[in-house]
């Protein structure tokens, strides 16, 4: 049903679980992994790209082809929604930290509200 799945990651354990879930449950889908660098990010764009490449390589260990992946700058909500739409994604998958104690994390909640594409949110174990 889903042919193109965008996985948004912030490199947290919860985002790692979202990536694992997307890989396991949508094996026939084309996957793209996205990380958004903000002004508050602990990584520069170059560092984030290296981290993202390691993450994808580990998740697709032994595979001959790796999914597309990219690092962009800006507002996480806006960039996830725009990237998914521009790529033609059928589904967005992302982890939810829920650190505010009110359910969804602020970025995940913003994406759910702003996206016209279905969003699958994944909580930590």
Q: How do the helices and strands follow one another from N- to C-terminus?
A: EHEHEHEHE
**Cα-atom Rg, whole angstroms?**
13 Å
Instruction: Indicate the proportion of strand residues.
Output: 15-25%
Please mark out the parts with pLDDT under 50 across 5 or more consecutive residues, or reply none. none
CATH superfamily: HUPs
End-to-end separation in angstroms reads 26 Å
The gross shape turns out to be: globular
Specify the helix fraction band.
25-40%
Largest sheet properties: 5 strands, parallel
Average predicted local confidence, pLDDT: 90
| Structural class by helix and strand composition | alpha/beta
- The CATH architecture term is 3-Layer(aba) Sandwich
Please write the CATH class name.
Alpha Beta
Strand order within the widest sheet?
A: 3-2-1-4-5
What's the number of helices?
4
Beta strand count: 5
Question: What would the CATH topology be?
Answer: Rossmann fold
What is the total number of structural domains? 1
């Amino acid at each position: 049903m889903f042919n193109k799945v965008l996985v948004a990651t912030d490199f947290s354990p919860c985002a790692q679980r979202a990536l694992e879930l997307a890989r396991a449950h949508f094996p026939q889908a084309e996957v793209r992994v996205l990380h958004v660098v903000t002004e508050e990010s602990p990584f520069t764009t170059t560092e984030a790209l290296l981290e993202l490449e390691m993450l994808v390589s580990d998740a697709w260990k032994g595979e001959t082809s790796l999914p597309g992946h990219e690092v962009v700058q800006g507002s996480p909500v806006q960039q996830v929604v725009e990237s998914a739409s521009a790529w033609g994604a059928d589904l967005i998958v992302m982890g939810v930290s829920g650190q505010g104690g009110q359910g969804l994390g602020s970025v995940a909640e913003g994406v759910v509200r702003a996206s016209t594409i279905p969003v699958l949110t994944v909580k930590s174990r």
